[in-house]
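TL;DR need structure tokens for one chain.
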Amino acid sequence: MKPLFRLSCLLVLLAVFAPQLPAEPAPARHAAGIATAHPLATRAGEEILALGGNAFDAAVAISAALAVVEPYGSGLGGGGFWLLHIASEQREVFVDARETAPGAATPDMYLDAEGQPVPGASLNGPLASGIPGSPAGLAHLAAAYGRLPLTESLAPAIALAEQGFRVDESLTRGLRFRANAARRSPAFSELFYPGGQPLEDGALLRQHDLARTLRALAAEGHDGFYRGPVAELLVAGVREGGGIWSLDDLASYRVVEREPVRSRFRDITLISAPPPSSGGIALANMLNIISGFDLDELDQTTRRHIVIEAMRRAYRDRSIWLGDPDFVEVPVALLTDPNYAAGQRTSLRTDRATRSKHLSGIWPETEGDDTTHFSVIDTEGNRVAGTMSINTWYGAAFVPPGTGVILNNEMDDFVIKPGVPNGFQLLGGEANAIEPGKRMLSSMSPTFLESARGVAVLGTPGGSRIITMVLLATLAWAEGADAAAMTALPRFHHQYFPDQVVFEPGAFSAEERRGLEALGHRLVESPRLFGNMQVVTWDRASGRIEAAGDPRRADEGEIY
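>> reply
TL;DR here they are.
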């Protein structure tokens, strides 16, 4: 086990204000809970709640702190989704701060003269970067839903950037992985590879340029990042490095508020991410398929088989239909309709695995992560599930000089060519093709679960595996699991292509493995654990808040 600093979650329990239970499906004047991927981010959220901020102020503080202490997974150079529950209005809203394609982007920008993908072009350097949305998201959360000014809610992150913090193994492992790409960015290398070598565990990391950028955002809000000196430095650095951003790209960026996807599973209401996330639709689709079977009457192997087949079909639909709803028509009502799932079940046999190539849809020309999440509930019942990303480890591994901002490589989440898998081996079609100003499809799935039992706020990083991790946690909660059990349960995943079931060590018993293989499933044991789920639950009967972080982050093994 690693020291406390490596624990992925700290639980913050604040004062209990009133003993009686609320009538509505959210905690009211009870305890507050925070689950984040880093104890310093949890502390930032705690500080803001103690100052009188609400869950939305805490979300700003946590998101910004994670940008400082987990630069490999999220940051001001990336994007994010925040699913909000506003207790006073008993409503939910989805804040979409996903990155957008630059105005000069073209559908074939990552192809060579023969029309083939250029290796690494959509993953490394500033050409791989979409226009960041996270800073706009923080400004929007503070202005529209918070109580505190950005100068207060960003103060913990600014202090962490200026005063520094001791780096851990997750940070340094990512640096070793990205060493070759990092050489193309002197500002990135100077910060994370002093003397030409990656930072070592326990080194003090100070990020003065990032602190100045955060101060500009705190002082001027949206315009502090998207206009003026910071914007000019960003564009100059991007273009010098071979990118195509313009000042107009930054100035025109806007957050979009969207209606969450809602569905029912047993007595649970699921509220999750709408397009341009694929999470809510895929979750609703999978749960609708599964609901046609009485899992309690099935043996464990058959139960696993049904869940895998539901995953296969939902990811098949993802590849065909999903994209930015401001650019393409996404058939949300159809894909989340229980009758549509009933039709999908007609091709699902309990005695045999379906070959993905036997389902109509997109198939590859050849067979050929990192993010972060937090969950918050405050004493008034407001809640936030926030997932932010710069895509793969350290994004594009590029910092425009003078900004301290690590750029994302989210352009790889577009379809660079139909039938060609992206960095997570996900397929896609024209709905997710590159267009100027378009938001690339995402798997980030911040989610609320509500039932007579109470509320669960959850999400996780993990690239293409995010949705299936949330699915498994949802099924576990439906069977009575608590927050700790939801984060700890072993995971398995199928995403239509490749046609295989990837599973963590210990996810299947020897009997289950034999049974699934006999049904025709190809099983691939992952050499690494995956995910970093953060869950906060509220129990209606007792008013008890529980927060749990993924125990995998306290393990010595490698984590996706």
